[in-house]
Design a protein that fits this description.
globular; 11 helices; mainly alpha; MetI-like fold; single chain
C-alpha cells in the first residue's frame, strides 16, 4: 500500500514538475537572452551585457509606455481596492433582496473573455469620449480588477467575529467609527495585498488596453508593436522588466496574505 502511494506521489510530482517546466522555460529563456551580447540569440552566449536595457530606458516610446503602465496600475489599484472593499463590506454587513444578483454582477467581469470585455469597453467609452485616453484604460482596468479585491477582502471579513461590531456599538461607537477602528484595521493587510495584486493584474494586462488605449500605449501593448515591426533583443529586455514587476507585485501580495493568515492561526 505504501509502495503504491509512493508511486502515485512520484507520478503526481513529476506531472506538476513538467507543467512548471513547460510554463517557465520560455520565460527563463527570455530573461537569459535579455543579457545576451548578440543581437540574435545563440547558445552558447558570447557575453553578457546590459546594453539592451539601456536602450529600452533611452527609447522614448518604451519609456512612455512604461510610465503609462505604472500610472494606470497605480490608479487602478487604489480605486479597484476601494470599490472591492466597499462591495465586500456591503455583502458582509447587510442583508437585502437581490443580494445574490448583486454579488453575481460584481464578480462577473473576470468571467467574461477579455477580448469581449475589451470590445464592449471600446464601444461604451467611444460613446462617452474616453476611448483612446489613459483615463479610459484606467476605468476599464478598474472594472476588471475590482472583483479580485472584492473576493480577497470578503474572504478576510468572513473570518471576523460578527460580535465584534456589536461590542463596539455597545461601547458607544457609531457605525463609521466602528468601520475605522475595527473593520479597517482587521482588513488592512488584505487591503494592502489587494493593492499589489490589482496593480500586477493591471500592469500585465494587454487585451483591454489594446482595445481602449489607442495611441496611449501601455508597455505590453508597446511590446506587441515591437514584435510586429522588428526582431530586437530589446523585446527580451522589455519582457524581463514586465515579468519582474508583475512577479514582484504578486509575491508581495501573497506574502502579506499568507503572513496574515499564519498570524491568525497562531
Amino acid at each position: 500500500m505504501k509502495t503504491e502511494k509512493r508511486g502515485a506521489n512520484v507520478l503526481l510530482y513529476s506531472y506538476v514538475g513538467l507543467i512548471f517546466v513547460f510554463v517557465f522555460i520560455p520565460i527563463i529563456t527570455t530573461v537569459i537572452f535579455a543579457f545576451d551580447v548578440n543581437r540574435y540569440p545563440t547558445l552558447p552566449m558570447n557575453g553578457v551585457t546590459l546594453d539592451w536595457f539601456r536602450q529600452v530606458f533611452n527609447d522614448a516610446t518604451l519609456s512612455r509606455g512604461l510610465w503609462t503602465s505604472l500610472t494606470v496600475a497605480l490608479c487602478t489599484a487604489v480605486v479597484a481596492t476601494l470599490l472591492g472593499f466597499a462591495g465586500a463590506y456591503v455583502d458582509y454587513r447587510y442583508k437585502f433582496r437581490g443580494k445574490n444578483f448583486y454579488m453575481a454582477l460584481l464578480t462577473l467581469p473576470p468571467l467574461i473573455p477579455v477580448s469581449i470585455l475589451g470590445l464592449a469597453m471600446l464601444t461604451f467609452e467611444s460613446r462617452i469620449g474616453l476611448s483612446g485616453r489613459t483615463l479610459g484604460v484606467i476605468i476599464a482596468h478598474i472594472v476588471l480588477c475590482a472583483p479580485f479585491a472584492l473576493a480577497l477582502i470578503r474572504m478576510r471579513l468572513a473570518s471576523l467575529d460578527p460580535d465584534m461590531e456589536a461590542a463596539a456599538w455597545n461601547l458607544g461607537a457609531n457605525q463609521m467609527s466602528t468601520l475605522s477602528s475595527v473593520i479597517l484595521p482587521f482588513c488592512l493587510p488584505t487591503i494592502v495585498a489587494c493593492l499589489f495584486l490589482t496593480a500586477a493584474i493591471s500592469f500585465d494586462e494587454f487585451m483591454i488596453a489594446w482595445f481602449v488605449g489607442g495611441t496611449n500605449e501601455t508597455l505590453p501593448v508597446r511590446l506587441l508593436a515591437m514584435l510586429q515591426g522588428q526582431v530586437s533583443p530589446r523585446i527580451n529586455a522589455v519582457g524581463t522588466l514586465v515579468f519582474t514587476v508583475s512577479i514582484a507585485l504578486i509575491l508581495i501580495s501573497q506574502l502579506l496574505t499568507l503572513g496574515r493568515a499564519s498570524r491568525g492561526r497562531t
